[in-house]
Amino acid sequence: MSNLPNIITILRIVLVLPTAWMLWESRFLEAFVLMVVAGVSDALDGFLARRFGWMSKLGASLDPLADKFLVAAIFIVFTYQGHIPVWLALIVLFRDFMIVIGAGVFKLLYEEVEISPTLLSKANTAMQFVTLCLLMGSFLPLGLVADIAAGATVPCFYILAVLGVSSGLDYMVIWGSKAHRAGQKRKLYKHGRGAFRRLD
Are residues 69 and 41 both part of a single domain? Predict the structure, then answer.
């Protein structure tokens, strides 16, 4: 049972391809349902991990990747179809790419890094979900609701762009500070070893 959150996360990753395919085929209702299922499963695996202590390094790594894969797939399809401006897709995708690569480089050069979402990052993720839901909702046969969703989409594009750039810069500052501290510790450690060898 302790692996249940990881299994749910893996299933969420599996949902990425059918969700993207439904969008590609303009089957927006099915894609919307799959995206909601992914969102609910994200909340569920997090709840189970915290409630029962079923946390693991694998889950901590897979959970944010699952979210980024889904968002990236949807943004790529919608951008190709002309529903999302290219500049916004570049901001969203580059930010997520920077975070994944940054974590890998930090681990390679210094140590394992725990990615703790900042307040800006959480706001950015929430706005991504809201924007994509509104965009999908604008294509559903919902009458006035669809019209309202369509009208709210463009303002959300600009809010998401601001949050994406701000949270990306926020991560750069945080990781830059961590890299500086890790570098200082490494220098002190090497200096200490050198002094010990001279005394020896």
Answer: yes
